Amino acid sequence: MSPHRNAISAVGSKVKVLPEVARALETGRPVVALESTIVAHGMPYPQNIELAKEVSSILRERGVIPATIAVKDGIFRAGLEQDELENLAKAGEENRAIKCSSRDLPLMASNITTQQSSDETVQWGATTVAATMRLAHAANINTFVTGGTGGVHRGGELSLDISTDLIELSRTPVIVVSAGVKSILDVKRTLEVLETFGVPVGAWQSDEFPAFFSPESGVKTPSRFNDAMSVARAYISGRELGMDSGMLVAVPNHDPAGENVEKAIKEALHEAEAAGIEGRDVTPFILRTVNEKTGGDSLRSNMALVKNNAKVGADIAVAVSNVQSNCKTTIQSIQLPANDGDTSLSDSESTPASSKYSANDEVTSRVVCIGGSVIDIIAKSSSKEKMIIGTSNPGKVFKSDGGVGRNVAEVLGRLGDKPLFYTSIGKDDGGEGILSRLADCGVLTSGASVSFADGVSASYVALLDDESDLVGGIADMDANQQIPTPSVKALSGVEFVLIDSNAPSRVMIESASNAAKAGASVFFEPTSVPKAKQICENDSFIKNVSYAFPNEDELLAMSNTSVEGESTTDDLEH
Known about the structure:
The protein is α/β, with parallel strands linked by helices.
């Protein structure tokens, strides 16, 4: 049973997941939850719907599917259509939206409307941070982006006015990406409560915990996250330990308008103290005073920080998705053959592989890439001295992962599509490093999709002189001759198959044929003029190609090639 179906059964038939969100969850693509209170009550119309659209665009540009969480006519929703989002944006000012925390969810569910509502009568439950976390987790969404989280109110040690957001963070395993807590709250006591509840908390690339409008609160952060992968690994580690708490990632807001707001907040706090305002009356007084002092700065800063949070949250969601897929089907699931001889290239960046898991794990994806994995090494002579042929010269050496099929697979992986990659590497550290780095990008491999050639992985070495002109190069592409062919069964359910010309012509022809039989569209990347010309002479390959991406010279070679009978020549060179 898919995780998505499990999620639905966990909260009953009242949950309705947008089809686009459901497909993303079922295929392991990253999804980010968004709260609805910020749309219905956080800012006026039309700024609220404009912000919602911008945030969605930010997420989609990074390969992430947005899922606004709300309650519509008593139905829990994970993902809204555009017209529904528009209706929600107007509902706050029309008194059709109720602020809904986690305690309100069962009450809202008891008010299911059985009759079809018109746009003017739709009743919304606009979910707070706590309620959004609860429904996001029920829908199997692990990352949630918001503006700011609640906390302990000033004087909370007497009034016990503590936000439910903190309680929900202690019991719902969702990553919450926010701009911290507002400085009108008690930041220090908020962090102490989260510590008591065992909630991992960290600031994004900062040693100080942010205070919503300001990147500075005067309170040191419990921990620091320097990148999305560190957040993802911490979250997954917590889940593997059986921890049910969420995680708070606080992103500093560096918008200039926020400085004016923060200044106004401090002035309002002094005014409240001078006027003897205490307890539950402090927060309303400060909000009212700050609004009067700042004009539109608070709204502008609020919108800026939400968009900034969305960028960070998208990267985190992609990283979590990649780590989760790595735990199931990565370099670790492949049995690396023993190397009979010392033929490895030095690769300080490679990550050692583990062979703890079966090499026959079944891996499926909507996209399959078939092609070469190449280690590119560029040696450039120093520009400060004229290069002398026949002897050693000072300079720089650059190494990178290459191969057209590998490059495309990496890009798709970074976009969250999790392609399955068919390739071949040598029995060396260089090849092992390529697979490990691909896994970090979200690219899937399996025992059937990777073959191991004798000797080194495919490599290209170029020598450039002091003026960056090519002196000469060596291409060792023997390993590419072992690229495996996916069967029709393996391509069942695959939508797109990309084939590059680094694969042997036999593999290209059979792969294209099998893809066509499986109902997949075939994309062809020629990679060079000789390869484009040679493979296009074979009708059994060309007839199965849906799209090709040649450059001008490759296209000219392809158009001038006469198609002959079936060919199985296997001597294509890099």
